[in-house]
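= Protein in question =
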Amino acid sequence: MFLFDRKQEIYEIGGVKVGGQPGECATVMCGTIFYAKHYLVEDAEKGIFDKKAAEDVLNKQDEFSDLTGNPCMMQIFSESPEAMEKEIAFCVEKSDSPFLIDSTVAEAKVAGLKYVDEVGLTDRAVYNSINVSCSPEELKAIEESKIEAAIILAFNPKDSTVAGKIDLLETGAGTFDKGLVQLARDLGVTKQMCDPATLPIGAGVGSAIASGFVIKSKYGISVGLGIHNAPSAWTWLKTFRKEHATKGPGGWEGLGADVFRICDIASNVIPIIAGMDFVLYGPIENASMTFPLVGMADMIVAEANAAEHGIESLEPHPILKMTA
């Protein structure tokens, strides 16, 4: 493995450590709940969902976090302001883990910001995300909130290369008058988690992985990816899945579904081997398969950097929990 020359920041968010040199902190696992068409959601706009099923998946993520030593966060994806408040309130009651405020609707995220300020949850919250699509009103809401942690999305629609992502982080790439890293600092975001933005295989995912190394080298902030989106959007894999599918009692099954699932889950080890700090691993119900896999990758990285560079792993960590 390798070390970064620049000092690597370690942030504590709701009791979870994220960042550092490879092998120092365990990879933080972020599982998504209430996403579009999630089986447990009954009315996405009103925030009505199967509470027993939601509690089960939250408990499962926490269980595997305890088992492997990989800390976790709840990626709460809501469709409306009403849903956001209800879903945050439910999740923080059922789990002590930190959580991401996430949505494709800016008003829902802003509502989440205001809610966590009102009820005193800002120390556990991560805003997802500061990006080129943020309006002045959204940025003002971030600035006026007490939130300290946010994901910076390094998606440059004009240039998906490493240089394009760094340009966005450094100068604003013509969208803002300053880079996103400095913009986030000016908004009060002192705990920065950068997502280089996963693109489909064949359309830029390689640069997203490579840029993670560059971002940590340049800024020393924590970096991670929602890498599972790359195989999910892979045309060849989607075609293979369809051509090799059979209808079973549990839904669409067969070789196509198995291959898709393997690629989806296994993709989460790639950012870890590349030295990153967190993964947005997708549907929270995949925790039972994803955590042991990521824990294994963490152990390999930690073992290498302990032997070659004297890096000591901080608790909790799979190297301290999963070694026989």
Remarks:
- The mean pLDDT is 96.
- The chain is about 45% helix and 20% strand.
- The chain has one domain: 10-309.
